[in-house]
Amino acid sequence: MNNKYIVYPNGRELHDFRELLNYSTTTFANNVAYVYKDDYTKKDFKYIEKKFSDVGNDSRALGTKLLDMGLEGKTIVVVGRNRYEWCISYFAITTSNMVVSPLDKALPENELVNSIERSGAVAVIFDDKYKDIMLEMKKTNSNVKYLICMDDIKEDGIITFNSLVEDGRKLLDAGSKIYDNITIDPEKMSIMLFTSGTTSRSKIVMLCQRNICSDITALNKIAIVGPTDTLLSFLPIHHTFECTITFLFGFSNGAKVAFCDGLKHIAKNLQEYKISVFVAVPLVLETMYKKINKGIEEKGKTKLINSLIKVSNALRKVHIDIRRKLFKQILDNFGGNLRIVWFGSAPMAKETIIGFNNFGVETIQGYGLTETSPVITAETDKYKCPGSVGFPLYNEELKIDNPDENGEGEIVVKGPMVMLGYYNDEEKNKEAFTEDGFFRTGDYGYINKEGAVFITGRKKDIIVLKNGKNVYPQEIEFLINEIPFVTESLVYQREEDSTDTMLCAKIVYDEKLLSQELGDKTPDEIKDEIWSRVKEINKNLPIFKHIKKIDVTTEPLVKTTTQKVKRYEELKNLK
Questions:
Q1: Largest alpha-carbon pair distance within the chain?
Q2: Of 204, 211, 398, 569, which one's alpha carbon is 20 to 30 angstroms from that of 370?
Q3: Which CATH architecture has domain 463-573?
Q4: pTM of the model
Q5: In degrees rounded to 5, what are phi and psi of residue 316?
Q6: For the chain, which residues make up each domain, given as ranges?
Q7: What is the CA radius of gyration of the chain?
Q8: What is the pLDDT of residues 526-560, one digit of tens each?
Q9: Which residues, at least 6 apart from 475, have a Cβ–Cβ distance to it below 8 Å?
Q10: 34 beta partners
């Protein structure tokens, strides 16, 4: 077990969701747990606040009614936007000895219906936008007995969320103890998650409550989030990164959660809700940082800010930290309270990481997979290593399997956060674990002398050259994406002849950004300009990693709903 990077050794431990719910709804009963707008699209919207006691009462009422309907041990799908009813559904299902299967609200209709069928769900809780899909689906899906809408609609064959909660309250008032008498087995499958399927048909991950609670326990030992914090719930809540950190980790510590009004409103919501902790992806944070820098530049204050950063950093070396006072005007762009930004899913430019830290906002990078609940490595609010994905959590074993001469190999992990396995897929389960029980992440990387983990690429994406050399395409893509007007890229291989392999790159650029930097250019001139930048990148790479051919486009790469590039689909279409 890794204890070196524990910052808060007395961080509270959790074992199951019933314990989590009972503790938080009792300890922080009168605190606000959730805040949102009744309808942010209207000018006369109202703020709705739900206390921790409301969460406890509503979860208990809904759980009681679901049990009364005979759903103990059954699977219930939840699909919809980030909202209060989604959270109550999750708590009620998992604390009532049922299995919750959160589905991606952005799935195409056929995939959504197929996932419900594969889950074996007997009930679906959903937003009203899915009403017609659900009614049509129920005609052919004999498993689904109940359609439950989170909105108050009147439709034959559909029960409303609020009516179930009200029925549950009546049962409780009549003396029902069915919910209170439930015993939770933290080792039993309680969460069924569909992977994003970047390469093929999605796998179904089985998680137990111990898995996620062990991750929350580990997070409690590396960063403090508490009752004075407000988190912005922006990333899709079905995704384990958002679900574990914002929803469950935040709730377990009495933090308030504000539901974001949408992608276009992030900056506004950060300000109006006075957000202090934000879980995001690198693209969002890099965009925020560029806007701040652009504002500084337009005001002619770049030289002043750089000087203040030097002074601030010098003072920090003697344990005097005045960043938040010194850069108050900059922090006010985020609402003035932002202090921690969690990020993951992709590398983030060091410039952005260092920039946020210079202004007094701690960046904490996490890494993991759905199969690991999800976090297995993370930086802390004390220990940082920009460029890495942080350090192994204290309650796990992480190692490099079959390292090469450079210490690189597949990252494998063993610990309480690792899934139970894939649902109904013994073949995939055998492939997923080593003989000694370590989970194969599918990511290649290495561990440095300080114990920080670095990822060099996905195992399935590694390009093996004719000379036996391994090329990790993501490393080169990261460098190409640093070109100011390039938004994304895909590095792949093509056989140049019978003795050599040629590395190629499909490069996506932003017409507006390119025009701002270079002026109007013809398509041939644009390709020549990007090619010249790639050649500069080649100069700093070993010859076997040189890009020899490029294609440029403004069309985005094909992605999953969680914005991961579908490499297999892109490669199929490349010439």
A1: 80
A2: 569
A3: 2-Layer Sandwich (3.30)
A4: 0.86
A5: -65, -30
A6: 463-573
A7: 25
A8: 999 999 999 999 998 888 899 999 999 999 998 87
A9: 456, 457, 545
A10: 50, 257
